[in-house]
């Protein structure tokens, strides 16, 4: 599923980015390009980041 339509970035790409060490929406944008056009996806990216932090916190 696409997270960022403008840059055609998928959810799994965002997850891969987080696993590679990205800790903020800005780092994800710099790596994948997601969020650099209309920025509609930034909230979605933040939600994915938050969810992955929670998973790490409970692991
Ligand atoms: S949907 Fe990501 S920049 Fe537009």
TrEMBL record:
Pfam families: Fer2_BFD. InterPro entries: BFD-associated_ferredoxin, BFD-like_2Fe2S-bd_dom, BFD-like_2Fe2S-bd_dom_sf. Keywords: 2Fe-2S, Electron transport, Iron, Iron-sulfur, Metal-binding, Transport. Residues 2-50 form the BFD-like [2Fe-2S]-binding domain. GO terms for molecular function: 2 iron, 2 sulfur cluster binding; metal ion binding. Transmembrane segments: none annotated. PANTHER family: BACTERIOFERRITIN-ASSOCIATED FERREDOXIN. Belongs to the Bfd family. This is Bacterioferritin-associated ferredoxin. It comes from Sphaerisporangium rubeum.
């Amino acid at each position: 599923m696409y997270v960022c339509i403008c840059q055609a970035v998928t959810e799994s790409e965002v997850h891969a980015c987080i696993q590679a060490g990205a800790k903020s929406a800005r780092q994800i944008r710099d790596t994948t390009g997601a969020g650099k056009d209309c920025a509609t996806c930034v909230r979605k990216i933040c939600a994915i980041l938050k969810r992955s932090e929670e998973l790490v916190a409970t692991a």
